[in-house]
Every structure is written in structure tokens, then in C-alpha cells.
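Record 1 of the preview.
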Amino acid sequence: MSLRTASPALGAALLFGASTPLAKLLGLDVSPQLLAGMLYLGSGIGLSLLMLVRHLLLRGQAGQAVPLHIPARELPWLAGAIVAGGVLGPVFLMSGLTSTDAAAASLLLNVEGVLTAVIAWLVFKENADLQIVLGMVVIVAGGVLLSLQPGSLQLSSGAVLVVAACLCWAVDNNLTRKVSTNDALLVAGLKGLFAGVTNTGLALALGATMPKAGPLLATLAVGFAGYGLSLALVVVALRGLGTARTGAYFSVAPLFGVLISLALWPAAPGWPFWVAAGLMAIGVWLHVRERHEHDHTHQPLDHAHRHVHDEHHRHEHDFAWDGVEPHAHPHRHAVLTHRHAHFPDVHHRHVH
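->
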């Protein structure tokens, strides 16, 4: 694996990690649930506008327009991901935060990466080499150290709710993998809109009030970058890396958040920061140097996504193709048996 392959997941972690200090910089005095709702709304609205601009730019170019369609057989997966990650997850988190201090919550949120990988490995049978498991452990250890404060973690009902939120997001990650062959902007946009409307509506129903136009627009912009573009990159990463590896890379988001916080509010980080940064760097290195290779057979598969005509895409076109790659259109994969280095991407979800 190269850093280029890992870049969507690391980019998603950077954008999401930046959303926390940027949201703090806004200085909004609103309920956590309303803030989450506005950030998700910014995600959905921003990605919808981005899809509109892309459609206008690619209109009339054969093979370049991305199909804005999710097959009916995949809709239950997407609905499950939206409910788990966009509705239940934030509700559990906001409920847990009412009786759990911020330091403990930050520490507990590292459970998401672990649960994501465990579900991917045990339920969806994703390949788990020893090196990948070790890399995940090291990255999560860095995240724990980064958020750990002596005496801050207590087993309480609030802590249980935070862990429940992590479980919801872990389920979300694994279900989203099932629809990751579809347009990333569409998948992330639908998740953002649904989660934004739900959480904002619940917050307003509980008595919250919307901020003024200026702070509101700024919050929507942060949501577009930190949640919207980040979610889209996660979908791309799930498509190319699989769930566990994407979850591992995404777990470095707190490190990016701390770095951006230090840039905004300069301070000398203590030794836990440097040790955590080193652990996360080692974990990423273990993942990047992975090489998984064996004889494997591809089963027949019909889907649509942007691709080039590599060894997995040898097909004819039923439209006038101008030779430009990558391009997107519905296509069918025939049975193919071969051997090469690969990851559990959309074309390599086979049993070992």
C-alpha cells in the first residue's frame, strides 16, 4: 500500500479533526445537539451544491457524468447507516455528554475505531493480517494516550451512552461500505441531510434556538468541510481500502485536531502528545507497508463507479466513448481468477 492509496482516509481524518477546533473558534453558545445538527446540515447542503456544480460541468460529456442512483438492493444498507450513524449515534453521544466530562468522552470515542474493525473482521469477514491488527492497536493506543487525563475515566451511565454512540458509528462505517461503490458525494450528502434535519429538528423541539445568520453560515461552512467532504472521502476510502483499514487511518483524526488547536492557540505540548504522535505514525507505517497477495477469484458483479481500464475492468461500451479515463458507467465484471497484491476493496471482498 502507498500513501496515495491511504490519502482519502487520511484526508478525511484531517478534515474531521479540524472541525472540532474550528467549531470551538466559532464561539457559538448553542446546545451540543443543535451544533451537531447544523454541522450535518452544512454537510448535506454543501455536498448537494457540489453535485449540482459537477453535473453542470460534466453535462453532455459521454461517460463522465456520475450516476446519481443507488440500487434498490443497497437502500437498506444506506438506511441502516443513516439511522445508526446519523440519528442514534449523535443522540447517544449528546445524552452521554450530560453526565460525562469532556476528557472521559474523548478517551471513550477511541472505541469507535476498535469496534469498527471488530465488526468488519468478525461479522463481515474482512481480511485481518497480523500487521493490520497490530497497526490498529498502535493507532488506538496513541489516541487513548492523546486524550487520557489521570482520573478522568469513570464507568457511569454517561460513559455507557458514549460507548453506545461509538457502536452506532462502527455499525454505520460497516454498512456504508456496502454502498461505497456508489457516488461518494451522493452517499455522504444523503447521510448529512438526513442527520442534519433530524438532529436540528430534535434540538429545536427541545427548546434550542438557531444562531444569527453570520454564525449560522460559518457553522454550515465548517460542517461542509469537516463533515461533508470528510464523509465523502471516507466513502472513497471504504471503496478502496475496506472498513477496518479506513477506520484505522481515520482514528488519527484527534492528532490532526490537536495540531490545528496548537496552531490556533499556541502552547507547548506535553510528552503524551509526542508519544501519541509517534505511536500513530508507527501504526500508519505498519498499514502502509502491508502487502497482501494470493490466488483469488472474482465473482460476477454489476455496479457503477469511476474507473480506468485496468485488469479488473475489461469491458466494451454501449455508448460513444471518447477514450477519457477515469470515467463512470454501469458495467459488469465477469469471473476472473488471478494473483496480485490487493486490499479488501470493492473488487476484493472474498473469503480467505
